[in-house]
Amino acid sequence: MGTTIPLSPARVFSFPARSHRKPPHICPKHGPSTLSLLIPPTSITTKHNNDHHSLKIDTTNNYTTATSSKTVYRDNWLESIAIAFLSKTIQETAGIKDDTPGYKGIVSTSAAVFRELSPNEQRAFVLKVLEKAVPSFSLTMIKKMRLMPNSKFTREFFAIFTTVAFRWLVGPSEVRELEFEGKKERNVVHITKCRFLEEGNCVGMCTNLCKMPTQEFIKKSFGIPVNMVPNFDDMSCEIIFGQDPPAQEDDPAFKEPCYKLCNLKQRHSASCIN
Fold it and tell me: What is the CB neighbour count within 10 angstroms for residue 231?
């Protein structure tokens, strides 16, 4: 005797019509080349016909900036290694375990340090991190051999090196010219929009965990004075090699209240800085 198997009625699914338009080729198929890591990023700007927002796309696949929103970074493998190394160094120095991945891990641990330590302790902490991150033998060799005299060549070298080597840390930047002791020099790094400031969204984290300790570290380790001048309106920053920074009580960066949407204090005041 045969067995009858009941069959359910056939169901019909409808799919949207297949588009024959090819998406724009933005990212290289096999990722960025090694050469692209050494070349300053170039970008193009596109605008949608139906709105007023512009989209800035980096042709070396490092970042995309929408002028009306937060910058989105696409770190390549080498930049990701640098980010992971710095994040690990910060955590080990602080004695904190933070599983937040990528660049957010750097900011997350930095925020924890900012909440727990005083401004002076914060700066001392960053100095320890930098000393661990930079090989001690290289610093010793530079000091003993005096490989970095305070000269035009050194100042311009630091500017170029910063734009090439630290794009992953501070964001896209370019070298600019400034009159130094009556002569023109290309000793200024202009950061378009600081990655650390944008991600942390706190004036105090900028001044105490970046500006002040970095100025001290470069002067102490390499003998080159440097003045970091953040612009808290557009989150840009200028790093001026060879220029002594003003005293803290005269520094405009310490006269600015924090952002209204400060990630840490959640209020508009100067308490993040002092």
Answer: 17
Q: Residue 83: what pLDDT? A: 96
Tell me the β-bridge partners of 241: 226
Q: Could you tell me whether strands 72-73 and 173-180 are parallel, antiparallel, or unpaired per DSSP bridges? A: unpaired
Q: Determine the Cα–Cα distance for residues 129 and 89; give it in Å rounded to an integer.
A: 6
The residue among 38, 36, 56, 31 whose CA lies nearest residue 46 is: 56
Residues 6 or more apart whose CB falls under 8 angstroms from that of 69 comprise: none
Q: What is d(CA 106, CA 142) in angstroms, rounded to the nearest whole number? A: 28
Is there a contact between 241 and 155 (Cβ–Cβ < 8 Å)? yes
Given the structure tokens 């910058």, which residue do they identify? Answer: 71
pLDDT tens digits for 170-190?
999 999 999 888 889 999 999
DSSP per residue, 14-30: --PPPP-PPPP--S-TT
3-state SS class at 40: coil
